[in-house]
Amino acid sequence: MSAENIKNFCKHLANNYEFRCQLNTAKNQNEWLSIVSNFGFVFTKQ
C-alpha cells in the first residue's frame, strides 16, 4: 500500500462516519478488507 493510499485512507476514516461504523462491525481481517474495498480502497498483498 503506497503512502498516498494510506494518506487518502486516513482522510476517509476521519471524514466518513458510515465507513467508521462499518469498520467497527468487522469481525476479522477479511471482513475489514471487504468493507475497505467497498469504499474504493485497493489493498495489495505484499
Automatic annotation (TrEMBL):
Segments forming domain Nif11: 1-45
Protein's UniProt name: Nif11-like leader peptide family natural product
NCBIfam families assigned: leader_Nif11
Pfam families according to UniProt: Nif11 (PF07862)
Organism field: Desmonostoc muscorum LEGE 12446
Lineage top rank: taxon: Bacteria
Stored InterPro entries: CHP03798_Ocin (IPR022516), Nif11 (IPR012903)
